[in-house]
């Protein structure tokens, strides 16, 4: 694997100028270590907006972008079901790859992507997921420092309006990567795996698909066991009733202040939609264009309440830092200052391409998280625990490829 150890900005090409790209915009606009030099998207409006803001070149063909000799690495932010073709195209062109979560929809596609990047000698990173959030890394460091001793149990839960935000038709079809498990569950899975050490063993789960007008899974609960006796419970609901940001001091997922008065907004907006085409059009207003705005957060991003129980104390993660609960005392440790949103993702990408320093969230890591997504489906269908075979363990800032 060849890495450029130069000090010039990392020249990045972007495939997909939709919602995923918009959520990374603050990082790309703020961080001088990255320079956007090319983009590929089907919408001419988005391509024109990209060249107007960033310069460079805009393509309608993915292979043409990947063949661009000025591009060092490619960020793939296209719909889940397109990831395989786009990652393999980048790998064949010799480009390092950052692919949005989840790695893929099927395990076969995920394995093909990992193998293509390995064979081409390029790096494959999966994200951004909330496992990159500053307080998650802070909690992992506290665990590594022995603050709570051995991890024993983790609880992660999140209640949102995800299923009632504007969706394209395929986003409501599970087989095409729709529903909360592929899009949202992978965030929780990544976080929990990082905090638990990564070596998952078994999954027992149940899922809920409770709205015939949104015919995909909108909720799940899963119990995951890990090596060393650690176990974790993961619960998510995207049915737009209880909002767990109430338990996060009304800081929203993206780190911005949130008003309790906004309750019900997603369902109200959706109530005025008369067709799938109208809903798709509404979603397109959230993609990249000349006048797109990005959030200005005061706090780190988060993915709902998370509690890590250890032999000598517990940790509770918040967007502003970590609460530590010991035997006889409790303290609060401030999170690292927020420089700009998703700085940690840029940190990982630049360290990987420039210094050959791999983060936990490699292609194999993404494949292990995808396996747990599929195990949730399988366990819910069978009514029994499902074993895991493609897991990797985390050790410090990297992973040990253990059983994959």
Low-confidence stretches: 399-404
- Please compute the radius of gyration using only Cα atoms: 20 Å
User: What strand line-up does the widest sheet have?
Assistant: 14-13-12-11-7-10-9-8-15
Anisotropy-based shape: globular
Describe what this molecule looks like in 3D:
The protein is α/β, with parallel strands linked by helices and 404 residues long. It folds into two domains: 10-130 and 342-362, 3-Layer(aba) Sandwich (Rossmann fold); 134-340 and 372-395, Dihydrodipicolinate Reductase, domain 2, CATH 3.30.360. It is built from eleven helices and 17 strands. The longest helix has 20 residues, at 363-382. It starts with 9 loop residues before the first strand and ends with a strand. The model is unreliable at 399-404 (pLDDT under 50).
What are the main properties of this structure?
404 residues, alpha/beta, Rossmann fold, Dihydrodipicolinate Reductase, domain 2, 2 domains, nine-stranded mixed beta sheet, six-stranded parallel beta sheet, 11 helices, 32% helix, disordered C terminus
Topology diagram in text:
Elements: E1 10-15, H1 19-30, E2 34-40, H2 44-54, E3 57-59, H3 62-67, E4 73-76, H4 83-92, E5 96-99, H5 107-120, E6 124-126, H6 134-144, E7 151-159, H7 180-196, E8 200-208, E9 219-226, E10 231-237, H8 265-271, H9 276-284, E11 306-310, E12 314-318, E13 321-325, E14 330-334, H10 343-355, H11 363-382, E15 386-387, E16 393-395, E17 398-400
Parallel strand pairs: 1-2, 1-4, 2-3, 4-5, 5-6, 7-10
Antiparallel strand pairs: 7-11, 8-9, 8-15, 9-10, 11-12, 12-13, 13-14, 16-17
Helix pairs in contact: 4-5, 5-11, 7-11
